[in-house]
Amino acid sequence: MSEVQSSFQQALIGNRNMEDTNKFLTKLKGCYFANTQLNLEFLENLDDFEIRDDDVFIITYPKSGTVWFQQILCLIYFEEHRKGIGNLETVERIPFLEYFSREVDFAERPSPRLFTTHIPYYLVPRGLKNKKAKVIYIYRNPKDVMCSYFHFSKKLTASATDNFVEFMNLFLEGEVAGSLWFDHIKGWYEHKNLFNIHFLMYEEMKKDLRGSVLKICKFLGKELSEEDVDAVVRQATFENMKNDPRANYDNKLKAYFGIQKKGHFLRKGTIGDWKNHMTAEQNEKFDMIFQTKMKDIPLKFIWDMNEE
Ligand SMILES: Nc1ncnc2c1ncn2[C@@H]1O[C@H](COP(=O)(O)OS(=O)(=O)O)[C@@H](OP(=O)(O)O)[C@H]1O
Question: Where are the coiled-coil regions (predicted)?
């Protein structure tokens, strides 16, 4: 029997019936994936996927800055993207492993191959665990992740509730694509010694984009001129990306999420938007869970200091 189980979310039921809810998520080896454009067959056989020394993986929990980092990496790696010559979308240059990739032949792609994925550490190809390729893990204040996810689910997909309290419960139960935020980041952090991995915070990129780009270039062994670094930073700002059809995913949204849904991947792009959503009580509950779940993880979390 296949390890893949279709699942449904009890808590989502609300005004929808079970048949509707059950088509939005698929559970594979304990992790939920969104059904939209999911390349399930590839995902099921990912363990054997051959890794090259110069492969680079962007790994994120959803809504943590994935699309932003795709743009940054495209600007670093592809001169024509940086110079605005090519109009290939970032997701074509740095495809997702598990989404929108049914037509992509990864084995045929020239090196260095760049990938994007939301998968938990335990689903990665075996070959990645011997430090062959490079991994960049982007993380973000989970309260902002949750709020971003709430709007994304509500506006862009039909998969979740319109009610923030309900969504918070789903998020804290891991009943969303990507499963539990705490498990995702802990899994990657606790197994970091298996990988050639660099952890980077969304908030750090926001506060010092240029410094973050330089750090990433160093990790990747990419030497860019001052002028090229300027071009990367200029084109990776929120304002620029919103108007850049190569980077804003609007085409994908139209194609896959339907025109009746309103909204953009690039919604607000700020630090601390959770304060506009969460009550003091909800915040306290979240903090308690965070402290319990993350107590052994010495990752730097700067988001409570000097927020915008
Ligand atoms: N350039 C730039 N600067 C700052 N913030 C940015 C940028 N690009 C994307 N974003 C914000 O990232 C949030 C979307 O996260 P993801 O790209 O990880 O979403 S997804 O998982 O791929 O669906 C989403 O956050 P919210 O605005 O809080 O919803 C995007 O607006």
Answer: none
**ipTM of the prediction greater than 0.90, yes or no:** yes
Q: Is the CB of 266 under 6 A from ligand 1?
A: yes
The residues that are catalytic are 118
What is the phi/psi pair of residue 56, to 5°? -130, 135
Distance CA 60, CA 220 (A): 18
Q: How far is the CA of 286 from the centre of ligand 1 (A)?
A: 21
Angle at 116 between CA 61 and CA 46, to 5 degrees: 95
> What would the 3-class secondary structure string for 16-41 be?
CCHHHHCCCEEEECCEEEECCCECHH
Ordered structural domains, the chain, with CATH: 47-293 (3.40.50.300)
CA–centroid distance, residue 65 to ligand 1 (Å): 5
Check whether the bond before 112 is cis (ω within 30° of 0).
yes
User: Over the stretch 134-189, which tens digit does the pLDDT of each residue have?
Assistant: 999 999 999 999 999 999 888 766 556 789 999 999 999 999 999 999 999 999 99
**Strand 56-60 with 114-117, pairing:** parallel
pTM of the predicted model, to two decimals? 0.91
What six digits make up the tokens of 22?
């059950």
31-34 and 25-28 as β-strands: parallel, antiparallel, unpaired?
antiparallel
- Closest atom of ligand 1 relative to the 70 alpha carbon: 17
Contact (CB, 8 A) for 245 and 251: yes
